[in-house]
Design goal:
Elements: H1 3-17, H2 27-35, H3 50-63, H4 65-70, E1 72-76, E2 80-85, E3 95-100, E4 123-124, E5 127-129, H5 137-152, E6 161-166, H6 177-187, E7 193-196, E8 201-202, E9 213-220, E10 222-231, E11 235-236, H7 245-257, H8 267-276, H9 284-288, H10 291-302, H11 306-312, E12 315-323, E13 329-330, E14 333-342, H12 348-359, E15 364-368, H13 383-395, E16 400-406, E17 422-424, E18 429-430, E19 444-446, H14 447-464
Parallel strand pairs: 3-6, 3-7, 7-17, 8-18, 9-16
Antiparallel strand pairs: 1-2, 2-6, 4-5, 5-19, 8-9, 10-14, 10-15, 11-13, 12-14
């Protein structure tokens, strides 16, 4: 008998039997409660409290009784969930909605910087505060809220709807979404399209400050970390070598940082700029409306801004440096990690080749872990994109909907072989500065924004199931 699993099921049953606990509870309050479960993913897996994930499952079962009673629910690899809503027409390809239940840790020493404790899930001042309020418990619960309400209305989709909720997206997703994808392959599932986290609406985009901008990400950048190691003679600092391991590695890192990848305008960014052009003032309208002539100027100008630079090049970030054990000992080994976010079309092999040429030092070893399933660019004129756009406009009729490129990585990569097109969008409205709280301090979502994201999810399910 698996005692934790038995207790989880027992607790879920007890909560369901007292479902009046959730009578009169608002969606915002449910999200606040969801935030209280510390489903934190750590790089050191021994630090992860897996009991929190089981408690979170029990909460979901109690909060969304129709979903768990009427739909097909399967627990994958103990902590992830696969939920299927059968459609009335089996000839139609299903669609996939994904989100993740884990969150990133709170940086040590920053707890007091939060307006409210990060795991209290406080609802105040028209906001829901806490870790996961943006990334990504709001995404998971908006799907559940939408499904629960549609079930209450007696809605039956024409095509099958599938919900996949992984438990380790923040640490690669291999044990969550990766295992869910394996199960989908066993079931012979293949989706017309999918929608994951990533895109959203921005209320104060600096290029179009007076218009709501809905960003549907049709691609995401690849991910690669190189490990650079310099080895050499060490010893007492009173008799130092001519070139130390720290000096050799530091010089290599300086060369890397001073030789960024060239700029390039990829399709999602090009289409995004062209879509925005008619809504801009001159001369921006003229410049972005004629990229066939001006794209060199545009990419150069965008590369000068730290945020926009990520749109037009494979970026380089020096993230870790480790060497030395004592102040008077020259280390025999120095190691650094450099993280790259790859534009569509760039490959890990291309990055390794380029960096090897830039470093140009046979005494430095360069290695990397394999990064599987780099996603391609999805069709911004396809049926899935059209459904998302229609759902957005049903809730935000003034919004300008544009395709774009996502800088970060998501669980989407685990499903690319199972879907014809992959999109990344959740229907919440945020301000530009608010986005900095994702993985940062004082993460929050507006109550109205969250309620609207639920309605966008409802519309996507209703329109997508046709």
């Amino acid at each position: 008998l698996n005692m934790p699993r038995f207790l989880d099921v027992l607790l879920a049953g007890l909560l369901l039997s007292t479902s009046m606990t959730y009578a009169g509870v608002t969606p915002a309050e449910r999200l606040g409660e969801a935030i209280q479960f510390q489903t934190v993913s750590y790089q050191d897996h021994s630090q992860i409290d897996l009991n929190e994930f089981e408690r979170f499952h029990a909460f979901l079962r109690a909060a969304y009784p129709r979903v768990f009673a009427q739909l097909e629910v399967e627990v994958i690899n103990q902590y992830s969930l696969l939920i299927s809503w059968p459609g009335s027409d089996s000839s139609l390809a299903p669609i996939l909605f994904t989100a993740h239940m884990d969150v990133v840790p709170i940086e040590s020493g920053t707890e007091s910087d939060w307006e409210y404790p990060p795991f209290d899930g406080v609802v105040a001042d028209g906001r829901i505060y806490g870790r996961g309020s943006l990334d990504d418990k709001q995404g998971l619960l908006s799907i559940m809220e939408a499904a629960e309400s549609l079930l209450a209305e007696g809605f039956v989709p024409s095509r099958q709807l599938v919900f996949a909720f992984g438990h380790d997206e923040e640490i690669s997703g291999k044990q969550g979404a990766g295992k869910i994808a394996e199960r989908m392959r066993e079931q012979g599932l293949h989706f017309a399209w999918m929608v994951d986290e990533g895109g959203m609406l921005v209320s104060d985009n600096p290029m179009i400050p007076d218009q709501q901008l809905a960003i549907i990400n049709v691609a995401e950048k690849g991910y690669l970390t190189l490990t650079l190691v310099a080895t050499g003679p060490g010893g007492h600092s009173s008799i130092p070598p001519r070139v130390s391991t720290i000096g050799r590695l530091s010089a290599a890192l300086e060369r890397i940082e001073n030789n960024p990848f060239p700029t390039r305008l990829v399709v999602p960014v090009k289409v995004m700029l062209e879509s925005m052009a008619p809504h801009l003032e001159q001369p921006q309208r003229l410049i972005l409306g004629n990229l066939w002539l001006t794209q060199g100027l545009v990419t150069d100008r965008l590369s000068q801004d730290p945020l926009m630079n990520s749109f037009v090049r494979t970026t380089t970030a020096l993230t870790m440096f480790n060497a030395g054990l004592k102040e008077n000992v020259v280390p025999q080994r120095a190691e650094a990690k450099v993280n790259f976010r790859l534009l569509p079309g760039d490959t890990p092999e291309m990055v390794v080749s380029y960096i090897s040429e830039v470093v140009d030092d046979p005494e430095i070893e360069i290695s990397h872990d394999k990064w599987d399933h780099v996603s391609s660019i999805s069709d911004h004129e396809g049926s899935g994109y059209a459904v998302i756009e229609e759902a957005v406009l049903a809730v935000y009729p003034r919004a300008l909907v544009v395709p774009s490129l996502m800088f970060a990585t998501t669980d989407t990569r685990h499903y690319i072989e199972l879907t014809d097109n992959q999109y990344r969008f959740q229907g919440m409205m945020i301000e530009t500065l608010q986005a900095k709280s994702i993985h940062g301090t004082n993460e929050y979502i507006g109550v109205k924004s969250y309620e609207d994201s639920i309605e966008v999810a409802r519309q996507m399910m209703k329109l997508g199931s046709r």
